[in-house]
Design brief:
By secondary structure, this protein is an all-alpha fold. Helices cover 68% and strands 0% of the residues. It has one domain.
């Protein structure tokens, strides 16, 4: 009867995971994100090593609660920001029309013309009449939507975190690679959530 293969130790698993993360962090991120989408815990299944000091991303419930509470606490700052913008919001939106409306080519001129009919003073007048309380109420009313969005993002952020924590960090070069990889992985996170296929995800 063949001898059952023993499970790798945490140290052996850590070395394997580190080698994979160092070689291709994007591929590791997609693998972890796909496992999360299937409801598979990579630590429990032995894909990545368990570590009591490994950082975990806050839970969906806590993240959602903090988003709403922070927005409610910032309601007066929101109104103050509307009344005292760092630049003209109408001009900024029109200047960005090509960037934001490339996919809506037929509507971008109409978009710019409609914006041009408005003014910063009109925006401030509406915000003052609505009041800062409406901002907080609006955020609270969207709790289910916020929770859904956070629920989609949280496991992907955890996959980014796990990948980066798995990479080497002994030298300046290692740490620089971790920083650049973190940026790449956040871009991949956006693509993953948008359903855009990448070579590593196929």
């Amino acid at each position: 009867m063949p001898k059952e293969k023993s499970k790798p130790s945490e140290e052996e698993l850590r070395k394997v995971f580190r080698a994979a993360a160092d070689q291709d962090p994007v591929a590791v991120f997609h693998q972890l994100a796909d496992l999360a989408a299937q409801g598979i815990n990579p630590v429990e299944t032995g894909v990545i090593p368990g570590n009591p000091v490994t950082k975990t991303v806050k839970s969906v419930e806590r993240w959602t609660k903090q988003q709403i509470e922070n927005a409610e606490d910032a309601k007066d700052d929101w109104l103050d920001g509307v009344k005292n913008p760092s630049r003209n919001p109408i001009d900024a939106a029109i200047a960005a029309k090509d960037k934001w409306w490339d996919r809506l080519e037929a509507n971008k001129e109409k978009f710019a013309k409609n914006l041009a009919k408005s003014s910063p003073s009109e925006i401030i007048e509406i915000a003052e009449k609505v009041g800062s309380g409406a901002y907080a109420t609006g955020v609270r009313a969207r709790e289910s939507k916020i929770k859904r969005v956070v629920g989609e993002i949280q496991p992907l952020v955890q996959a980014v975190s796990n990948t980066i924590q798995g990479m080497s960090d002994k030298t300046d070069s290692d740490r620089e690679k971790r920083l650049t990889s973190a940026r790449k992985l956040m871009i991949e996170l956006g693509k993953k959530r948008a359903g855009i296929a990448t070579p590593a995800a196929r």
